[in-house]
Amino acid sequence: MRARMRLACAGCAVAAFGWAPMGAFGPMPLRGQARPGGTPSVFRQFGERVVKIEISESGSAAKASLGSGFFVSAGGDVITNYHVVAQIVHDPDRYRARIINAAGDTLGATLLAIDVVHDLALVRSSAPPSAWFTLRAATPDQGDRLFSLGHPRDLGLSIVEGTYNGLLRHTLYPKIHFTGSLNPGMSGGPALSASGDVIGINVSTEGNQVSFLVPADQALALLDRTRAAGFQPPTNFLDEAARQILAYQDIYLDRVFRTPVPTVTIGRFTLPTEPAPFFKCWADADRNPEQPYETVSHQCSTDDYLYLSEDQASGLIELTHQVLTSSQLNRFRFYALYSNEFSSGDSPMWGDEEDVTSFRCVTRNVRRGVKGTLRTAFCARRYRRMPGLYDVVVRAAALATRNDGLVTTLTLAGVSYENAERVARRFLESISWTE
Length: 435
What we know:
This protein has helices at 38-46, 82-90, 216-227, 237-252, 331-343, 417-429; strands at residues 14-15, 50-57, 63-71, 77-80, 95-100, 106-115, 120-125, 145-150, 158-167, 176-179, 190-192, 198-207, 210-215, 263-266, 269-272, 279-286, 294-302, 306-309, 312-314, 317-325, 360-367, 373-382, 390-398, 404-415, 432-433. It is an alpha+beta fold. Strand 5 and strand 6 form a beta hairpin. 44% of the residues are buried. Mean pLDDT is 87; it is low at 1-8 and 15-37.
């Protein structure tokens, strides 16, 4: 939400109109890793198992986006990222997928299963492969060399060397820290050990050789699910995506603002901070001598999210506190400033009318016991095509202030209405101040 929720994953599918930007010193060969010349060997041995996945617009046959994938069965099953095929999920009548194998053959592609939480999907090729990967448990040591394969920027199959740096500690879902330069179009490709074991699936990057992989065991779990007796692909993948998100948010939202809530003190206000381990927080102050008041800001947000579409996500949560103080403004001018700050905040979220309704707000006073009263606005908009999901913005201001004031905002994206109310209640209950 720091970028107003215009979503883009580094290492994601490359849009036909381009994509915003996403080798330093390679590690020395370690025990059990490739000797010099290992990268060409990995490319030669396993490159034919990696494919390009193109998403095209049905009416014009124009290429809309592309990503990568890899064969995992003799029957032509291909693992990729959910965000690579998300357009098919959201508009199955408008978009279609095709697979281009290493020989350059264009094959049909049928979506079989999705795992939105771990950003994975399974598609089936219309023709069997000549070679495929067998997914199995593999645990590298930190510092081991990995080899990522994919189709960066539609430039052809490429290989990137990098380093395995273990699982990230505080994330919404498990991710591997890969020190290597993933690029748009490589999403969904495999990251291999020197022996050809799939360690992870390319998913995103923050640039400067800071990239991320989905652990291969999540892909194995998705594949096993489709092999279970009686499995049938969902009749509506969009409903299935909403179902998975609603189920998962019960897990991660239950951890947000749980007692005891960590707090920060700004002036006379005691405020919640770091609502859960997967948040990061920072602060700043504006003390311009030319303006008659100063502002201290404290902000916390999630680092990652669950991709739904280019403009929508779940798991995005942001908390912003602003404390205004003035020794120059009289009470009436300060109240005018304070009121304007409370009412002027706009939504930090994007969304087209075809995807979401307009925000509807309920404003009321919330008594904080002997600690005072908060003026609150609870605003929500509904996802039109994913039943049960909402974007919610909660704003609150402390009433009966003197020459200082608090305006605080909680933003939740892609959550159920009930969970939004529950989290908002815990958020407001964790705010206090001295009179």
